Amino acid sequence: MMLRDLVVRNKPRETSGSRSANRFDFQKDWAILKLFELHQYKDDYLLVLDYHDDVMVLDSEYDPQSAAFYQLKTKDNGVWKLNDIIKAKKGKKGLLPSIIGKLYDCKLTFPNHTLSLTLVSNACFEISLQNHAGKSTEKKSIRFTDIEQKDLNKIITAIKTEHALQNEPDFVEITFLEVTDLNIKDRETYMKGKLHEFLESMNPKNGKFRLSLIYNAIFGEVKRKNDYEWSVSDFDEVKKHKGISRSQFQDMLSHFDIDDEFEQTWEEISKRLNSDKVDFKTILKLKAAWKELEIVQMDVANEYFQSQQLVIQEVLKEKNELPTPHLYQDLVESVYAEYRQREPKSMLDEYLIKATTLMEYCRL
Fold first, then answer.
1. Is 140 exposed, middle or buried (0-12, 13-18, 19+ CB in 10 A)?
2. pLDDT digits (tens, 9 = 90+) for 180-234
3. Which residues, in sequence order, are bridge partners of residue 242?
4. Which of 130, 275, 276, 309 lies deepest, with the highest CB count within 10 Å?
């Protein structure tokens, strides 16, 4: 069976993550960092949030062949020891899955498609490694193939017991421990630094990025996907409600004005408005609406604004064929009047509508 079908048919064993009041913003921020990495180095991907594991990365948004699974764990103090990873804790209805047991469950669910299993934390791992591998607490990444055989046997035994396996579990070569630099106590500062690095890699010529606005927009979209708690019936719904693909993230980035065109466009519009002798107060209102528009269009989940934007585009295409010696008086005002006739119950502010008209005019 194709991986895209297995993702939907094999329902996640646990769905409480989304419903338990947003377990950790740390998890969402780490997912954003993963998005940056994937977008820079992968031509195709689909990052899926809190579905089968904390983060699942498929190698394609259309026809995936492999899946990498990531489980996120945090610690305020100390290190992770072997027993922390392999021990199953008691719950109200019996034993809960151990950390490694839950991670291995992904391999059982997708036996022919699992590319890797990774436990990620802000804390180090204290575990015995083979002599050549060095000290575990000094490492950012640990391969299970580097773990000393005695400790590795304990892990294998724990997995066999937890999942009632008859045969040896096949996972050692694809399983990793990873320590992230993401700090749970100062996440936002770290994230904005990483965001700036990512945006500079996308557009080295522009050093002016609205980091707070862009970070909040990306975080909001990741949170929305992560916290979606209703069932999905097919792979397209997984993409829509739980995933972020390369094409989706690229579309999101296109709304962020990383080329600084938004501000430059306003400068040109302002010159035209002044030459058309539009009164000063109107220009100020349009400028304020232009700044609001920059924020509004960053919200890719704002379906209402997007629907109204389409109406404005349709009206503008019709009006744009007519002579418009004065941009504001002859075109913008005309589009606004026609828009109001078509959308009498519109919730958009007058000057936001007019600013949107100006933006769409510049895109024609």
1. exposed
2. 999 888 888 899 999 999 998 887 766 577 888 899 999 999 999 999 988 898 9
3. none
4. 309
Distances (CA, A) of 253 to 75, 81, 124, 214, 246: 32, 40, 34, 9, 10
Residue 10 DSSP class: S
Q: Are 142 and 127 contacting, i.e. CB atoms less than 8 angstroms apart?
A: yes
pLDDT at residue 206 in the model? 64
Burial of residue 299, with CB atoms counted within 10 A of its CB: 0-12 exposed, 13-18 middle, 19 or more buried: middle
Residues 266-293 as b or e (16 or more Cβ within 10 Å = b) = beebeeebeeeebeeeeeebbbebbeeb
Question: Within 10 A of 46 (CB to CB), how many other CB atoms are there?
Answer: 26
What tens digit of pLDDT does each residue of 60-88 get? Answer: 999 999 999 999 999 989 999 999 999 98
Q: Which residues contact 241 (CB under 8 A, 6 or more apart)?
A: 225, 228, 230, 232
Using CB atoms within 10 A of its CB, is residue 324 exposed (0-12), middle (13-18) or buried (19+)? middle
Q: What is the pLDDT of the chain when averaged over all its residues? A: 90
Comparing C-alpha atoms, which of 77, 126, 108 is closest to residue 12?
A: 108
- In terms of phi and psi (left: phi > 0; alpha: psi -120 to 50; beta: otherwise), the region of 11 is beta
Hey, what are 219's tokens?
């975080």
Q: Considering the entire predicted model, what is its pTM?
A: 0.83
Model pLDDT for residues 303-360, shown as the tens digit of each residue: 899 999 999 999 999 988 778 789 999 999 999 999 999 999 999 999 999 999 999 9
A 10 A CB-CB count for 45 gives 24
